[in-house]
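Ticket #4471: complex job returned nothing on first submit. Input attached below:
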Amino acid sequence: MEKFGPVRVGLLGAGTVGGGTFEVLWRNQAEITRRAGRRIEIARIADLNTARAGEIAAGRAEVTDDAMSVVTDPGIDIVVELIGGYGIARKLVLAAIENGKHVVTANKALLAVHGNEIFEAASRKGVMVAFEAAVAGGIPIIKALREGLTANRIEWIAGIINGTTNFILSEMRDKGLAFDVVLAEAQRLGYAEADPTFDIEGIDAAHKATILAAIAFGIPVSFDKAYVEGITNLQAEDIRYAEQLGYRIKLLGITRRRMDNGKLRGIELRVHPTLIPAKRLLANVEGAMNAVLVKGDAVGHTLYYGKGAGAEPTGSAVVADLVDVARMLTSDPGNRVPHLAFQAEAVADLPILAIEEVETSYYLRLRVADEPGVLADITRILADAGISIDAALQREPDEGENQTDIILLTHRTIEKQAIAAIARIEALPTVLSKATRIRLEDLN
Amino acid sequence: MEKFGPVRVGLLGAGTVGGGTFEVLWRNQAEITRRAGRRIEIARIADLNTARAGEIAAGRAEVTDDAMSVVTDPGIDIVVELIGGYGIARKLVLAAIENGKHVVTANKALLAVHGNEIFEAASRKGVMVAFEAAVAGGIPIIKALREGLTANRIEWIAGIINGTTNFILSEMRDKGLAFDVVLAEAQRLGYAEADPTFDIEGIDAAHKATILAAIAFGIPVSFDKAYVEGITNLQAEDIRYAEQLGYRIKLLGITRRRMDNGKLRGIELRVHPTLIPAKRLLANVEGAMNAVLVKGDAVGHTLYYGKGAGAEPTGSAVVADLVDVARMLTSDPGNRVPHLAFQAEAVADLPILAIEEVETSYYLRLRVADEPGVLADITRILADAGISIDAALQREPDEGENQTDIILLTHRTIEKQAIAAIARIEALPTVLSKATRIRLEDLN
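Support reply: We reran it on our side without changes. The output follows.
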């Protein structure tokens, strides 16, 4: 099925995200190839710590401590930069571009500060610089803004785009604890780094908000003009008062097209703790999760939610960028993105299961005689069918009634087994009605 | 800035979505051109009801009752099919493809039933068939699955993908009303059609779930194998019992890669009322909104939320597809999607406003003497500064204390005005501390 040879990737930086990227690409190689139309292979991994790089490669890629040799390697098509920071990363990215490589990066700091220089160089050389992983980890928010919402005049964006601070704020609210106490806990659990400054002072969120502002409004990246306020001064009592008033406090990255009397005044770009109504979905994004709410003039509100950090969620975004580049590199523009996501010749005719073969949980409601042993009879039938019970609710009969409702929630089972067991239950003399049966999914 | 001439579009079907598409494209023409790199213009509108088409066109496009003349017109690059149904729409889409036109369609029924035939014809002719608008309206879920999550083995998808039924279920739960009563209300409000069968019997959701299954798992569309159960038999008491047990009932489209003992058994594809834990974000998607939850092996859970229907939200997706095609049609593949979403030469240097110029609302906490008139003094200062108050909370002083906290929520104002007013408030002799000030956004 592969009309084209593999795309060869050089990976710079063998840290957490580098490992996640390699692992995801390796594990899902077959499926990714079916989507991309050609194999994507990480041929070389560069890290000063070659032992660390070697652990990731495990003999499946060449390891080097010389990153510059990767970005100048004529055999490399795409350079993935996962080093971070503004120093060597900038030099390597610019060198990769000069050498005609496409670049994929997760480096929000680099793009927020030096993005204009980098994108200009890339346009000059006609190469792509893809950066889905730079904002909100695995959530495809860059793609949504650059491609999914192109019809819209974007009015504003408000995002929970730093998982560390969202974890801390969630814990402060849940447990009524002070900032310092929760920060120490977050560090112990690995949700906050030993030096948490970038996260808790809002700098990381501001890097990401800067990138979102640029692609939402068509302006250059300008991190130096962002207003940045972290969460270090937040008091537990303010979280409590906010709660009483129907609000929650989140660290938001906000950017907004500001109109004054119908005239465009400029762009707001700011990161700060923010009260938001508790009923909004965004207010209910808890723990280390990320979510971005976008208001467009045509589409209205859309929200994008998922894991904003971590090896595989971030690796998911890096690999998606690699697939984008690989698809673009094929000479088949009419079918750049295959209609059904997978290349036409790679579509698989997997069976669609009949509903009787489906696996799910159930809510069952039964009208029963109010007699001892009824529930025991029912649960025995379910147990005999291998169906275990997650919760049961038996109503007191109404005054003067000798009937009542029993409600059961089951664990997962195959539908035909549930149907057979329910038929036996309905045959019990103490069961006075057909069962009402509604499927249940935990979605976890 | 336009290196290429305009892309010429023929629009088939002058209904609600046709009007929304035309309006969005016209209103945001300048911004869309900055993103697409070339102008996208609806040159012709076809509808048997030419009066209706004429109202949309208003002299800005040619109107015809002969749709076939549009799909065979050598001057047309892209055909947008918004007629709906399987009959004439299928014939016109296939004719457009045979004539080498790219096709954009919002027609989920057509794709769920005849998609394999249509995509095969399109691949043969090397044209795109784009269908973002076919599932979940303005939410870019097709793009997320086909491009954003390509690194993942998709495990399952569960979506609220029919707004009518979600509105009905939300109302049944909120108001404890029976299905029939709420359906009549939904029809009166325009959330349900005069013949609501397609929605309430789950058929519309099953069309969409069929498309999602195909692009998630790389299988052909196979609507005939989907299990479809609507909401017409749902009892108000089951919604109530579910609530007591910590669940909500939603009509979900579910598709899942079913593994049995580590072996791929097949694909589940089903639409039915489903209990889901009340704490899940998906359970809190209310009214006519849509949301799709996707579980990928690398990215974990991601969720996409927004308006699933309506003229402009659906038009937003249609126009996004047009931009995709327009970008693909340019001969500049290295810059197919511009780095910063807008074409490099169209980036605008809008001012980023200083934080003092930002407009926002505030939470203010003040430590005050427990004396009469304190709140009046404070609110007068705010009123003089043109800052109105949304809510106030004054705590009873603790036993034996003669101080207390006042918390105020303000309406929107410019930050420098808030700062000046707060300075005056802090100068009051009855105000005993610096104000704690946290910004507040309603996000509405």
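The mean pLDDT of chain B is 94. Closing as resolved unless it happens again.
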